[in-house]
């Protein structure tokens, strides 16, 4: 079975992903793949440097995330240009990895951890979508605590994503991560036990 795992920034998606892997799932993390596709020598990094200029590269040729972030997180059009390069490259590599897991264990669970799954219209790639949910105010508080961002910047980052309530409505499986870790574990167990993974 191949499912998508998503949520909002600071919703606890990585925590739920870890819980699933502890039970035997194979996880493909879009953020990890996103870091891979912008390593020196990768076509996506060359395309980014060509579009945004050498200022987005460190002297050693690696991506200067801070410089690129300063450009794209303040301008939706620039962000769209970046995503037009990175999203197809990430998707292609993730699908290859997922299908390799599927062929190794056809009765197992492969999980694609994709932060912007709904925003990038990837629902059809998966047999179902698990959403990790927290209410908006808790999400904002967690993001500020985790990143040290001021409230205004944290709110702006959250506003770049689809709202949590909308994601909640679209979920095939919902994990409410607003309580304790134990409560989240119990929900993951319920999901795991309702399926027949090997």
What does it look like?
The model has no long low-confidence stretch (mean pLDDT 94). The termini are close together. Helix content is 54%, strand content 12%. The chain has a 5-stranded parallel beta sheet, with helices on both faces. It is globular, with a radius of gyration of 18 Å. It is of the alpha/beta class. It has 9 helices and 5 strands; from the N terminus they run βαβααααββαααβα. The chain folds into 2 domains: 115 residues, Rossmann fold; 75 residues, Rossmann fold (3-Layer(aba) Sandwich), CATH 3.40.50.
What string gives the helices and strands in order? EHEHHHHEEHHHEH
Task: Kindly report the average pLDDT value.
Answer: 94
- Shape type: globular
Architecture of the largest domain in CATH?
3-Layer(aba) Sandwich
Major beta sheet, specifics? 5 strands, parallel
Number of domains: 2
With helices defined by DSSP (H or I, 4 residues minimum), what is the helix count?
9
What is the fourth-level CATH superfamily of the largest domain?
A: P-loop containing nucleotide triphosphate hydrolases
CATH topology assignment of the largest domain? Rossmann fold
How far is the first residue's CA from the last residue's CA?
11 Å
What is the CA-atom radius of gyration, in angstroms? 18 Å
Helix content: 40-55%
CATH class placement of the largest domain: Alpha Beta
Judged by helices, strands and strand pairing, the structural class is: alpha/beta
Structural descriptors:
five-stranded parallel β-sheet; Rossmann fold; 198 residues; single chain; alpha/beta; 5 strands
């Amino acid at each position: 079975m191949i499912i998508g795992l998503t949520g909002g920034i600071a919703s606890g998606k990585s925590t739920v992903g870890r819980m699933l892997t502890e039970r035997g799932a194979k996880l493909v993390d879009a953020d990890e793949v996103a870091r891979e596709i912008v390593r020196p020598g990768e076509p996506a990094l060359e395309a980014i440097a060509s579009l945004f200029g050498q200022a987005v590269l460190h002297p050693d040729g690696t991506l200067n995330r801070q410089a690129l972030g300063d450009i794209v997180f303040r301008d939706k059009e620039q962000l769209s240009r970046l995503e037009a390069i990175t999203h197809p490259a990430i998707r292609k590599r993730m699908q290859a990895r997922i299908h390799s897991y599927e062929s190794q264990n056809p009765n197992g669970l492969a999980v694609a951890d994709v932060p912007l799954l709904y925003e990038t219209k990837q629902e059809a790639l998966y047999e179902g979508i698990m959403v990790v949910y927290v209410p908006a105010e808790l999400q904002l508080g967690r993001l500020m605590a985790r990143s040290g961002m001021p409230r205004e910047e944290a709110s702006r980052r959250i506003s770049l994503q689809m709202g949590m309530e909308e994601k909640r409505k679209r979920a095939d499986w919902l994990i409410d991560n607003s309580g304790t870790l134990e409560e989240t574990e119990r929900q993951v167990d319920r999901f795991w036990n309702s399926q027949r993974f090997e």
